[in-house]
Each structure stands twice: as C-alpha cells, then as structure tokens.
Amino acid sequence: MSSNALIKGSLQTIILKLLEENEKMYGYEITQKVKELTAGEIKITEGALYPALHKLEAEGLLTTEIQQVDNRVRKYYSLTKDGQKEVSSKLAELQSFVESMQRIINPGLKPDLGF
C-alpha cells in the first residue's frame, strides 16, 4: 500500500499523535509502533523519520531527553506544550483532507471517519 509521498506528507501528524498517546518515545520505537498499528502496511524509514523529528524539535514542538539504556544511549522525544496544541490542529487538518478526498473518490458516499 504505502505511498512514500503520502506518508511523507503525514509524517509530522503521525509523530505528534504517537507522542501524544505515549508521552515519550525514541526513534526506532516510533517506526515499530507505526508498523505494528498498520499491520506492516506503513513502514517509516530512519531517513524520513529523523529529519521530521529534528524539524519538529527546531519548531519547538518536541523536546528531547538522553537516557542510558543497557549500555546504549537513547534519545527520547516528548511533546512540548506547543506540540500538544499542534496535535489537535494537525489531526483536524488531516481529517479535513481525508474527507475532501473521500468526496472526490466517492461523491455519493457520506464520510463517517470517526477520528
């Protein structure tokens, strides 16, 4: 299924939503959670994930914390207060887009997306 362009356009929303639900996560954990939630249909590469995480951090939407775990250094990402506000905005934007696409693809159907 996964179209890289569609995923890239939704990646920030995916990251923000996962961090809203999980408080803090590290990069690999994010990729695995997406894979798990989508039954392997969406696979996020590190090459796409880390630039998106760094951009969200630069925009003040994420904060980071370094932790030592089993002789490994992990960088955990969490939402800032601005990031928490941005989750709702991004989800509303995505929902509106999906509804618009549904009207184009199935003009006779009334969308019931239940985000």
From TrEMBL:
Residues 15-87 form the Transcription regulator PadR N-terminal domain. SUPFAM superfamilies: Winged helix' DNA-binding domain. It comes from the Bacteria. InterPro entries: Metal_resp_DNA-bind_regulator (IPR052509), Tscrpt_reg_PadR_N (IPR005149), WH-like_DNA-bd_sf (IPR036388), WH_DNA-bd_sf (IPR036390). This is PadR family transcriptional regulator. The lineage of its organism: Bacteria, Pseudomonadati, Bacteroidota, Cytophagia, Cytophagales.
